[in-house]
Amino acid sequence: MNTTESNPVITSEDLLMHWQGHRGLTRRLIEAFPEKEFFTFNIGGMRTCSALMQELIAIAVPGLRQIAMSSTEELKEHLNYTSKAEFLARWDEDTKEINRLWALIPDEKFQERIKTFGQYEGTIWSSIFYFVDNEIHHRAQAYVYLRALGIEPPHFWER
Amino acid sequence: MNTTESNPVITSEDLLMHWQGHRGLTRRLIEAFPEKEFFTFNIGGMRTCSALMQELIAIAVPGLRQIAMSSTEELKEHLNYTSKAEFLARWDEDTKEINRLWALIPDEKFQERIKTFGQYEGTIWSSIFYFVDNEIHHRAQAYVYLRALGIEPPHFWER
Question: Which keywords does this chain's UniProt record carry (chains A, B) (predicted)?
Fold first, then answer.
């Protein structure tokens, strides 16, 4: 681990705010989705919006917990939620838990390596970037679902 | 601008490699798209894949040039390309140009502020993150188009 006198590209706080900004947008996407179609609508054999959002929930806090605690957990995607309200309540709990866990990660840890969920190897920073990128990716797919349903999604650039 | 003795969350080189990894995936998405549908297919009144990729091209090099050169350019989205081959050739040129421009950005610049395309204000790092996030967002929409066309997209996790 090199300690260098430098100007950071981004700070730990920047990266947390960036992720939470994306999470706020994803929350608005969930809110915008019609209740029934959230659990039933898909395109081209893809997963429903609820299944995509389950994946994001399965990754965010459990992934960050492994980073903060240097622990290992299995990926568990199945939730028994049957309403958007349950997703939104969980989303808000997780937003707070992400802030709590983030504070436990010292700066020097971001360049260390980890194997999340017992199988995905990389640096800490690249693991966190993967969580965020994967959220952007699946949320964008839900944007297409909303457009196909004739509903205007929230603006991508509003965080 | 604070100069701190610290371990960076990510280095400038990390961020370039991260973006270029995403660009490689977007290139494979363009390759996977059928020629005719690239210019004609859409869902829910959204733009075609060629229009989405035009936007990415309009942002990447011109945006980074403004960052590297501290210059201002207008956003010009219109390209007269009529084949995927022209998009792919431009993509490859831009990949090299991004590497060239990136080398001109000193580390201390990432926390400075800029107004790209004369209108989008933020830090340099957040502007670059926006370019990458916007690429992930629109590429994911093209993933749904491909699935709707019965074609399996490239794996999201392969960079």
Answer: Metal-binding
Interchain proximity B5–A2, CB inside 8 Å: no
Please, what are the domains in chain B? 29-148 (1.20.120.450)
* Main-chain dihedrals φ then ψ at residue A4, nearest 5 degrees: -120, 150
Structure tokens at B146: 């491909």
Of B19, B120, B96, B148, the residue nearest A45 (C-alpha): B148
Residue A134 exposure: Cα atoms within 13 Å on the Cβ side: 20
User: Cβ distance A28 to A107 under 8 Å?
Assistant: no
Partners of A114 in the β-ladder: A122
What tokens does B61 get?
Answer: 């090099």
Dihedral angle at the C-alpha atoms of A39, A26, B135, B129, nearest 10 degrees? -160
| Number of helical H runs and strand E runs in chain B | 5, 3
Nearest Cβ partner of B125 from A14, A46, A143?
A: A14
Number of neighbouring beta carbons within 10 Å of residue A68? 19
Tell me: pLDDT of A1 over 50.
Answer: no
ipTM field = 0.95
Q: Least CB-CB distance to B136: which of A2, A45, A136?
A: A136
| Joined tokens for residue A33 | 């989705």
Structure tokens at A126: 């690249």
